[in-house]
Amino acid sequence: MNAETLIQLQGITKRYGTGEAAFLALCGVDLTIQRGEFVAIMGPSGSGKSTLMNLLGCLDTPTAGSYRFKGIEVETLNKDQRSLLRRHALGFIFQGFNLLARTSALENVELPLLYRGYSRKQRHEMAREALAQVSLSDKERNTPAELSGGQQQRVAIARAIVTNPDTLFADEPTGNLDSKTTVEIMALLRKLNTDRGISIIMVTHEDEVAACTRRIISVKDGLISNDIITR
Description:
CATH superfamily: P-loop containing nucleotide triphosphate hydrolases
Number of helices: 7
CATH architecture: 3-Layer(aba) Sandwich
Oligomer: single chain
Distance between the termini: 23 Å
């Protein structure tokens, strides 16, 4: 594995249930992703793409196979160790934004910093910087109810990047947005990838959204059916 490899999967299998009720969601997946890539993962419902995303994001563990993240053998980590890895190296963006409803944009962005022992002043400074990077400096006191869908997703992105993660995992990040806002959010993600070098791995079912990335991986019946470099 060379110095530029971020993720390497070898023979990854994921089985749910036992006996006749067993379901094989992933059937021996091999995959390598380099640092700095912007990757879309696509596939029909039940294809295994969400299972693959959960494994890559250290939210689940494989039944068999090897997963290395920056050289770390993830499948050997216990639950607490995986949690530490997520906290210190990964950021997550979700379709539903997952913001606290009665909390300001600034306080929502500060949340990941509470678990790291930063002072109140440090949290404020870092959160304000993250909001500035998503062009929301003027909305720091607003609650989610006072923000549009696109603005809420920008707050969620600011929260994901406030800890300076190596990698962002985005699960249908434009699924609840109109077409104009989708273009804006994808432009923001491209900028984070290009300007800050953040690796982004995104699940989407939208061809137009996937076309904004640099690589499209298609999953079907628990296997990678196609892997295309787009630019």
